[in-house]
Amino acid sequence: MKKKNDGVMAIIAKNIFTYFNAIFLGISVLLIVAGSYRNLTFLPIVIANTLIGIYQQLKAKRILDKLSLISEAKYQVLRNGNKEEVVRGELLRDDVIFLASGQQIPADAEVVEGKISVNEALLTGESDEIEKIHGTHLMSGSFVVSGNCRARLTAVGEDSYIAKLQAKAKEVKEKPSEMVGDINLIVKIAGIAIIPIGLILFFEGIFLKHEAFNNVIVSMVGALIGMIPEGLYLLVTVALALSAARLAKHQVLLHDMRSTETLARVDVLCVDKTGTITDNKMNVTEIFDPVGATPDEVKNSKNLLASYVATSPDNNITAQALKKYYPDGQKLDTVNVIPFSSKLKYSEIETADAHYFLGAPEFVLGDHQNSKDLVNIDNHAAKGERVLVFAKEENENNKALLFISIANGIRPNAKETFKYFAEQEVKVMVISGDNPITVSKIAKMVEIPGAEKYIDATTLKTKEDLRDAINNYSVFGRVKPDQKREIVKAIKANGQRVAMTGDGVNDILAMKEANCSIAIGSGSDAAKQSAQVVLLDSDFSHMKEIISEGRRDINNLTRSATLFLYKNIFSMLLAIFAIIGVISYPLQPSQISLISMFNIGIPAFALAFEANDKKQHGRFIRVTFLKSLPAAITSFLAIASLVIFGMVFSIKSTDVSVASTFLLSLAGFMLLFEICKPMNGYRNFVFYGSIIGLIACAYFFHYLFAINSISYQCVMLAAVFAVAQESVMRNLTSFFGRFQK
């Protein structure tokens, strides 16, 4: 079961009642008490940030809610003798529900008619298929592997097994993605640091320097404002919400916002043949008889096959192709029916006088296959066709009656999509239950790198075999569901991030094991409900948009976070310097607001939404920290030096404050220039627009931002340190750049 999106009031509350908004409120009260109204310039920015966050998240919520409604699983129930179609939330206790292969069981129930095989792996961890007959209990959260049944619901909603399990799971917090986790860490460190630093500055100003209360408050607030990453978390939230909304327009539903980031960093993409390389429609291309079969035997076998198809309860795409080919078969009188199972790789029907099987030749016939029949099978497999055998039990072995060749159509944009993955350094591995020769041929047709390297998964007996295979092969055939999960585990054990696509219940265990799971819209409800990403229109080419969105978020937020971190690190260093030197913090809150607006806020938001699909290497916090450190250290050294020389030459503190503002902005623009490389028309506009904006505000609103004319002596000092900044920052950038690789 997926978490529902936050409600409207929850989104509003989350944006308003934040830790930093509480800090801003406290700071505002102190400034009002101190009578320093000019230094409240940060308030409009805080309010605007909050309103933008609410608006964008509500906008994304509306789009995603519409999409979720379309994709929500529906169930047929019997009420008052009539069949009704309802969603999970509308199910009632004692409803009689119809369950079929591919569905997730939505509530606790008891089978009243029919027989199904279920997999309870998501609940118990055991991947065995369990047969459920009349009177047996069904646990919500398990999924139907094969068969059909009617069941009476015994517990729904919060009373169901899965709901109670999830309630216990809430005690363990969900781990955020790498980027969001790192940003949480940055925000947490800043949130913890500002309280003791603020208190020390306050008590130092009052009790050691004996300054006026008003001056102490302004100095303290100036230090704290610079340390608060006020727009960073908002920027991340809005960027992810907008990505989800943009993907929704491509019929891509994100059950988990983190999935775009995970996909953007993925190293290996595991796909099945059907639904990704090929479409979801199968057609019978040929019915061919076993070597040595007589015309009468073949005719009789075809009639039996038509009857078998009419009798079988299966409704997967293979069964649909057979029913389309044999629409008028007469049903058999059965003693027992075993629907198709991905574990067994065949279905079975027992009549009073015979046992019939339909499935993969290697599993139905075992070692008793005729060598000439094998040649025919391989010839069809080499053309990319799937071969089934219709067989009858005879003398404790199964005898082939007919072979059926089935083919899928290649998706028109499949080749282009897989070419994109190769260009983006993503290895594609094809994992299928079909004949490896068939799978390899299909993979070659869409030019998947390494498609000629295939292996039969039935030969992989140990974990060591599996580890060796994933390093040497790109195509795996005859893979069983539990092996899919083991393959994903082995890839992760290699230190690689893996994404898994799937459309059936046999894919769910592997999808759950993967770093990111993608379900095909035309697949089973259980697969769609288990996946983090759903391609609602089953168009696999949308994977390009998903990866592109994820990389846009990572790359742009890395650049934007670098700007925020620059201000935070600098402010913390300067605050510590002020504490140790027992001096007043040299920058006023309004001056910090001016810098925050044009050095950080506006360019950070402008750069956050630019198209950028380059694969990002390195951990988010390491990259942003090392990129921001040169500018932060440069600004700190320049302004600390200016403060010291200002004291030596008895320069007014207000002059030092104004000069410090421009030194800080200069280093900020140098950093902005670095992260904008390579420059293009849009980035030039952002860069030069920010410079012009800062100069214009400093000129036209000089009183508001505490910008006044300064002495000639201070101008000369500031000019010297400004020139020195370029050289210091260039060398520091070169030094710290070595550690980014």
UniProtKB/TrEMBL annotation:
Domain P-type ATPase A, first and last residues per copy = 72-167
Q: Which Gene3D superfamilies match?
A: Calcium-transporting ATPase, cytoplasmic domain N, Calcium-transporting ATPase, cytoplasmic transduction domain A, Calcium-transporting ATPase, transmembrane domain, HAD superfamily/HAD-like
**Where is it chiefly localized?**
membrane
Q: Which InterPro entries does the annotation name?
A: ATPase_P-typ_cyto_dom_N (IPR023299), ATPase_P-typ_P_site (IPR018303), ATPase_P-typ_TM_dom_sf (IPR023298), ATPase_P-typ_transduc_dom_A_sf (IPR008250), ATPase_P-type_domA (IPR059000), HAD-like_sf (IPR036412), HAD_sf (IPR023214), P_typ_ATPase (IPR001757)
Membrane spanning residue stretches: 12-34, 40-58, 185-208, 220-248, 564-585, 591-609, 629-650, 656-673, 685-704
Extract the PROSITE patterns matched here: ATPASE_E1_E2
Keyword annotations for this protein, in alphabetical order, are: Membrane, Translocase, Transmembrane, Transmembrane helix
One GO term of the cellular component aspect?
Answer: membrane
Q: How does it sit in the membrane?
A: Multi-pass membrane protein
- What molecular functions are annotated in GO for this chain? ATP binding; ATP hydrolysis activity
* Compartments, as annotated in UniProt: Membrane
Q: Which SUPFAM superfamilies match?
A: Calcium ATPase, transduction domain A (SSF81653), Calcium ATPase, transmembrane domain M (SSF81665), HAD-like (SSF56784), Metal cation-transporting ATPase, ATP-binding domain N (SSF81660)
Any Pfam family the entry gives: Hydrolase
Task: List the protein's name.
Answer: ATPase P
